[in-house]
Design brief:
four-stranded antiparallel beta sheet, 6 helices, ubiquitin protein ligase activity, transferase
Length: 248
């Protein structure tokens, strides 16, 4: 009997699965797959042509348009109407770098220029935070903050310009409050333009201060921050670019 019990124990040991070990293998496989995908994506992005002279970009786009137009003239014998109705709109996946410019700029609320006029920018991001001190059950005071307002604005039309006078249109709003793809992605670095903390002081009055203290709350003040993309900032955009059709 003891020998049979030993064999049974050995059988259970051979069929045992370590779930923690399996989890480590699965997570490792996911990370391995992710790193492989990111590496492949990085190689693909490095192979994208980069343009800083938009005259060369226009030349390559016109060449691609010529190839597409020649291919469109080939009529499908089985369905000639479908081939004739197709209007080629060739595009190229490129990276373009240039200075961001716009005719209509956004005005900052707090940031000022040297002459006192509001600072202008292509993209504007403003956040107002209320800073508080809360008292815990043990009598300790902990600093906290809450966002009171958050506002963003973007120039309705802006483009990237190179040093030769060429321009690539980046955003042309067709409706009020419409943002560009870059603004919606939020992957660009904004420059700090204004950061000021205004202490509450005694402007809240004695009654408000007493009520705040009774609730274990101290209003420390308001912090206003503004971050912008100024006119002339060098930006790099990656995406599909096409030739604009000029209407006569």
């Amino acid at each position: 009997m003891p020998s049979s019990g030993g064999e049974g124990a050995a059988g259970i040991g051979e069929g045992h699965v370590s779930w923690s070990g399996l989890g480590c293998i699965a997570v490792g496989a996911v990370f391995g797959y992710g790193s492989h995908v990111y590496k492949r994506e990085g190689i693909r992005l490095r192979s994208i042509p980069r343009y800083t002279d938009f005259r060369l970009l226009e030349r390559d786009l016109m060449a691609a348009a010529g190839v597409a137009a020649a291919a469109a003239q080939t009529v499908d014998v089985t369905n000639p109407r479908q081939s004739q109705s197709q209007s080629p709109s060739p595009g190229m996946l490129v990276a373009v770098s240039g200075a961001a410019t716009a005719d209509t700029l956004v005005k900052c609320l707090h940031s000022r220029q040297s002459d006192g006029a509001p600072q202008t920018c292509i993209y504007y991001d403003a956040v107002s935070e209320q800073h508080l001190a809360r008292q815990t059950d043990r009598g300790e005071w902990i600093r906290d903050s809450a966002v009171v307002s958050h506002m963003t604005a973007e120039s309705p039309v802006w483009q990237l310009e190179d040093g030769t006078g060429g321009a690539v249109n980046m955003h042309r709003a067709t409706a009020f409050g419409q943002y560009s793809d870059a603004a919606r992605a939020g992957e660009w670095t904004l420059q700090p333009a204004f950061d000021h903390f205004k202490a509450s002081g005694n402007d809240r009055g004695v009654v408000h201060s007493f009520l705040d203290m009774h609730k274990g709350l101290k209003v420390l003040g308001m912090r206003h921050r503004e971050r912008v993309i100024p006119q002339g900032t060098t930006l790099t955009a990656v995406g599909e670019v096409t030739m604009a059709r000029i209407r006569e």
